[in-house]
Every structure is written in structure tokens, then in C-alpha cells.
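Entry 14. Structure prediction run on the chain below.
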Amino acid sequence: MPEQPQLRARGRRTRDPHAVEPGWAPELQKARVYEQILLDVILGELPPGARLDEQALARRYDAGLAGVREALGRLALEGLVERRPRAGTTVAPLDLVDVRQAFEARRLIEPHCAALAARHATPADVAELQSALEGAAAAARDGDARALVEMDQRFHAAIARATRNPTLARIVLPLQHKAARFWIYSMVEDTLEERIAEIGRHLVVVDCIARHDEEAAEAAMLNILGAFSDNVKRSTSGAPRSGRALS
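Output returned:
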């Protein structure tokens, strides 16, 4: 079997799925900044413990200070960054107890979300879910961690929206963001076959939702979370060797 490619976080910025053409409204610009900082925290490009300077972030993401401050505020509420008087803002450490608790909550909530999505999903919702996973196999073969994480974020966000329950979405998405930081560690250790199998589990959920099969969608989401949890337990059996998840 040929050697598997190493996952890598590519320096380029892929097109943001929520972006629009020049003339953005301020709220869309702020959402873009939040999504970019979130993704870099998940990938470890902004590593645990890193100090986050607002001016530097504004330059990095070609954004205004207001958008950066709002993004950091949202990330602080999610527990992904820490803001302390006089000490400034830093990326939150990786906490195994915290992520295990997040997984426990996800296993209770996300299967129900998948069932609700199967009940309420419109053709547009199904198309969004299918679009979220387009190119996933190619990204897995290329070891493109950024693309895989972006796809996973879009997938879970699309399911949350399809539930037609904004309260559930507000609860589950921050839990998913927190867990995704540890998914990076498990992906580094996964074989190509394991990554392709993970994509297949996601596609099963999409199929169940498209068929409006609530029971099957719930079981399929449990299958994703079970595999994800096992991978994270394996990859975090010891302390991470460094603050940077990817090389």
C-alpha cells in the first residue's frame, strides 16, 4: 500500500461559503471574521495559549477591529478563547475533561437534531448537506485538513439549520466547534481508509435525511459520534506533544 499523505493545513484561504461579493453588509463581514478565526483555532494555526492581539488579527484577516472584537467575544462564550483583564485574550488550552463532556452532550443532542432534520428538511436543505461534502474524498486523499474541517463545519451547521429549532442550533454548534479541535489530532493518525470511511458515515446521514427517515438519521448520527469519540480517545490517550495540531 502506498504511503498515506500527511494531513496539512494549507496556507491559502479557501472560499468562504457564506461570502458575498464586494459591498458586504457589516454583519456579513463580522460573520466572516468569526468563521476564519474559529477555523484557525480548530486547526491549531492559532495554537492553545497563543495571545490574540486584535490589531494583528485585523491585519491577518483584512477585517475591522469591531468585527475582530465581536468574533473574540463569540469565541469566548463558546470557551474557545479566554479573555482576562490586563492579561488580554488567549486561545483556550486543550482540556480532555472539557472535550469528553462536550462529547457526552453531543451524543444526547445531535442524534435528535438529525431526526428533526429528517422530519423538516426541504429540498434546499438536502442540497446544502450534499454540497457540504462535495470534494471530501479528494480532500482526504490530498491530506487537506482545512478543507475537511470546513466541510465538517458546514455539514453540522446545515443539519442544525434543518431542525428548524434555533435553540438547538445555538446549543449544539459550540459543542461541535470544541470537539473539532480534538478531531484534528485524530485525523493526523487516521489512515486514508479511515478518513474515507468517516466521510461515508456522513453521507449516510445525508441519505437518511433526504429520505425523511427520522429513526435511521438518528442512528446514523450516533454512528458518527461513536466513531469520532473512539478516534479522539485513541489520539488523546497521552498529552498532545505540542500546541500545534498540524505540521
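Residues 96-120 form the longest helix (25 residues).
Filed with the rest of this week's runs.
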